[in-house]
Specification:
The protein is built from seven helices and eight strands, in the order βββααααβββααββα. The chain is mainly alpha-helical and 305 residues long. It has one domain. Helix 2 (67-90) runs antiparallel to helix 3 (121-139), helix 4 packs antiparallel against helix 5 (204-226) and helix 4 packs parallel to helix 6 (232-250). The protein is globular and about 65 Å long. The N and C termini lie far apart (55 Å). Its EC number is 2.5.1.145. It holds the Pfam family LGT.
C-alpha cells in the first residue's frame, strides 16, 4: 500500500532548555548577478574532498595521478542527474498535478530547479556508479578498485553535503527538548503547523555528519589494517551509511511516500545494508586473495597527459 506521510497532528511542545543549535538566517548570497547557494557550496566541497581522497588512494595502488578526474567528468554529472531523478520520482506530487508546470525552469517547483534542494544520495549512487563503470572500462581500471578507493571520501562528502540542509533549514527531525535541539524559523515552509514558534527539533543533519565522519575513519582503518578489497570496502560503506540512514530517516518530519509502513528512503537504506552484506560475502568467496593490481587483467593502464 502506498501512502503519503506527513505530520498530521503534531504534538504541542513546551520546553525550557539550556541550549540549542541556531539555524543560519541566510541560505545564499549574491556575487554580482549570480546567486550563490550555500547548499551548492556544501555539495561542491564534498565532491572535491571525495575526488582528492580517491586520487590519493588510487595513486598508491599505481593508477596514474589524477586519472580519477577523467572518471569524474562523467560520474559526477550522472550522479547529480540520478540524484535529482530519484528525488523527483519519490516526491512526484511536489512537481506534478493540477496547476503545476514542472518543466518550466523559471517556475517555482520546476523539476530542473536543483538549486532549491532536492537531490537524493541513493539516486546519486546509482547514476555515479553507472558513469564510473563506463569510464573505468575506458581506462582499464577495475570498478571495485575505484569504489574501494572512493568509499572513505564519499561518506565524508556526504557529511559535508548535510550542512546544506542546515543552511536550508530542511530535513530536520521530530520535536525535542534536548539541549542540542535545532532552531527552525517558524515562517519556514517546512515548520510543522500547530507547534509553538520556539519548538526545537532533532538536528538530523548533525547526527548524519557525526555518523558519516566516524564512518570515514572506520573505512580508512579497515582499508589499511584488514585490507578490504575487491569492492568489500565499498560494501562496508553501504552497510555503515545505510544503518545510520535507517535511524535518521525514521525520525525526519519532511513528507515522504510510505510503503508498508516505512518511508521510501528507509527501504532504500535497508537495501543498501543488504547489498553491502551481499558484496562482502560474495566477493570474499570469489576473491579470497589480495587484489594485486588495480587494472583489468590483460590490459595496461591508460595514461593521460
Amino acid at each position: 500500500m502506498l501512502a503519503f506521510s506527513a505530520v498530521d497532528d503534531p504534538p504541542t511542545l513546551s520546553h525550557d532548555v539550556l541550549a540549542s543549535i541556531p539555524s543560519p538566517s541566510v541560505s545564499s548570497f549574491q556575487l554580482g548577478p549570480l546567486t550563490i547557494h550555500f547548499y551548492a557550496l556544501c555539495i561542491l566541497t564534498g565532491i572535491i574532498i571525495a575526488i582528492v581522497m580517491a586520487n590519493h588512494r588510487l595513486t598508491k595502488r599505481g593508477v596514474p595521478d589524477w586519472q580519477v578526474l577523467d572518471i569524474a567528468t562523467l560520474a559526477v554529472p550522472l550522479a547529480i542527474v540520478g540524484a535529482r531523478i530519484y528525488h523527483v520520482v519519490t516526491h512526484y506530487t511536489d512537481y506534478f498535478g493540477p496547476g503545476r508546470n514542472p518543466w518550466n525552469i523559471f517556475e517555482p517547483g520546476s523539476v530542473w530547479a536543483i538549486w532549491e534542494g532536492g537531490i537524493a544520495i541513493f539516486g546519486s549512487l546509482i547514476g555515479g556508479i553507472v558513469g564510473a563503470l563506463i569510464m573505468c572500462r575506458r581506462f582499464n581500471i577495475k570498478l571495485t578498485t575505484l569504489l574501494d578507493a572512493l568509499a572513505p571520501g564519499l561518506i565524508l562528502a556526504q557529511a559535508c553535503g548535510r550542512f546544506g540542509n542546515w543552511f536550508n533549514q530542511e530535513l530536520f527531525g521530530l520535536p525535542t527538548t534536548l539541549p542540542w535541539g535545532l532552531e527552525i524559523d517558524p515562517n519556514n515552509p517546512s515548520f510543522p503547523p500547530g507547534l509553538p514558534a520556539d519548538t526545537l527539533f532533532h538536528p538530523t543533519f548533525l547526527y548524519e555528519v557525526i555518523w558519516n565522519s566516524l564512518g570515514a575513519l572506520v573505512l580508512l582503518w579497515l582499508g589499511r589494517h584488514l585490507f578490504f578489497q575487491w569492492g568489500r570496502l565499498f560494501g562496508m560503506y553501504l552497510i555503515w551509511y545505510g544503518a545510520g540512514r535507517i535511524v535518521w530517516e525514521s525520525i525526519r518530519l519532511d513528507p515522504s511516500f510510505v510503503v508498508l509502513g516505512l518511508r521510501t528512503n528507509v527501504w532504500a537504506a535497508i537495501g543498501a545494508v543488504v547489498l553491502g552484506l551481499a558484496i562482502i560475502i560474495v566477493q570474499r568467496i570469489r576473491h579470497p586473495e589480495p587484489e594485486e593490481s588495480p587494472f583489468i587483467p590483460g590490459r595496461e593502464a591508460v595514461r593521460t597527459e
